[in-house]
Write a structure and sequence with these properties.
Blueprint: H1 2-5, E1 8-9, E2 14-22, E3 29-36, E4 38-40, H2 70-77, E5 86-88
Parallel strand pairs: 4-5
Antiparallel strand pairs: 1-4, 2-3
Organism: Micromonospora palomenae
Protein name: NUDIX domain-containing protein
InterPro entries: NUDIX_hydrolase-like_dom_sf
Length: 93
Amino acid sequence: MHEELGVHIVAESASRLGDWHAGTGEDAVHVGVWHIGDWVGSPTNRAPDEHDDIAWVGISELGGLPLLFGDLAALLRCLPEPECARRHSDVTD
């Protein structure tokens, strides 16, 4: 997370919600779905060559986003809306 978003995850606040698998061979996609309750830092797009943009959205908004893997939005809509996570901006690299 730090490499791409500039945040450090508080390990005790992370819980794996599930996995999503689609495709086969070179087209296979495997995604771990996590709930992160606490982190340090302010998210920024530290990999603009890999990501067009980053944004905070609710699960109910995912269906309207132009995601690379459309089925991922359907999977995430089935998950419970997480409680508000705490954010800290007092990190130094």
